[in-house]
Automatic annotation (TrEMBL):
Protein name: DUF559 domain-containing protein
InterPro entries found in the cross-reference section: Restrct_endonuc-II-like
């Protein structure tokens, strides 16, 4: 038995190996079976085992799904985003794998195997092999049922820096026409500067009410060049900021203290700051619209506050 070779293969594959690799290392099927029955190894897929005891991790299950699929298979969709630890996304239990059109083989429970004529080259140094994140976002948007889940996946991936708006747009242009419509709507939100689902909900509310659209996630600098803030929504002329006050998006504990301190600095620079909860946006939109409209109408006179430098959010 070539223990060193098998250990190195397992290391490169996140702790899981194929039955073929086990055989190549000189381990007989009967010896492998004894290890699995004795819970020294764990069977993760029909042809994949974990060469250690204990429950396989989510990453190991995904790697097993790729090995079971064979060829140049890659994880994509919500699975790729989950393994990249994208926040604010509901992932579910399914493992989403891309394989070449015409690929066949034994299926693994809990895996959605999607055949494609446009199989991407995997990102380097990822375990398991992973589709480029713009493609993963597009596949996620096509797979999920709810529009909000698609919006959350795309917005959070861009906000996390996994892919840019331009990359996502280019990927959507290469996709089949039937898969574009939902992504095009999300791209419109991203192009406006929106970077989270609560912000997107607020934007729909503002635009639907006929209010002037603010700048979303613009960078606001003090006259000396120091960054003051990156507010969710900014009406520059009216010096009005609206922040979505979400524990999920703005944190808790020390993060909440920093959020309050940031609001204090904005007010000290002459900005009017109005906070709104995501739940209020969804459940009492009329009140939110009324409050914003009133604040816009009550533009106060210039009191000699410092002139701020505003840079719009770029793709």
């Amino acid at each position: 038995m070539d223990r060193d070779w098998l250990a190195e293969v397992a290391r490169r594959q996140g702790g899981v190996v194929t039955v073929a690799q086990v055989r190549r290392a000189g381990v007989s099927d009967s010896a492998r079976g004894r290890r699995v029955r004795g819970q020294v190894w764990v069977r993760v897929a029909p042809d994949v085992v974990k060469v250690s005891a204990g429950e396989p991790s989510r990453r190991q299950v995904a790697m097993a799904a790729v090995l079971q699929a064979g060829g140049d298979a890659v994880v994509t969709g919500l699975t790729a985003l989950e393994l990249a630890e994208v926040p604010h996304v509901a992932f579910g239990d399914e493992v989403h794998v891309l394989v070449r059109a015409g690929c066949s083989g034994r299926l693994m429970p809990g895996v959605f195997r999607e055949r494609t004529a446009r199989l991407p080259v995997a990102l380097p140094l990822r375990v398991p092999p992973t589709a480029p994140y713009a493609r993963a976002v597009l596949d996620a948007c096509s797979r999920v049922e709810r529009d909000d889940d698609a919006r959350s996946a795309a917005l959070s991936a861009v906000q996390s820096g996994l892919c840019g708006v331009a990359e996502l747009r280019a990927e959507s242009e290469r996709a089949p026409r039937r898969r574009r419509l939902r992504v095009l709507r999300i791209l419109e939100e991203l192009g406006a500067g929106v970077r989270s689902l609560p912000e997107a909900d607020l934007r729909r509310l503002v635009c639907g009410a006929g209010l002037p659209e603010p700048l979303w996630n613009a960078r606001v600098h003090l006259p000396d060049g120091r960054l003051l803030c990156v507010p969710d929504a900014l009406w520059e002329e009216e010096r009005l900021v609206v922040e979505v006050d979400s524990v999920a998006h703005h944190g808790r504990g020390e993060d909440r203290v920093r959020t309050a301190e940031r609001a204090r600095r904005m007010r000290a620079a002459g900005l009017r700051v109005f906070s709104v909860l995501p739940r209020t946006i969804r459940e009492d939109g009329a009140a939110v619209v009324g409050a914003i409209a009133g604040a816009l109408a009550a533009r106060r006179p210039d009191r000699g506050e410092p002139r701020l430098v505003v840079v719009a959010c770029r793709e």
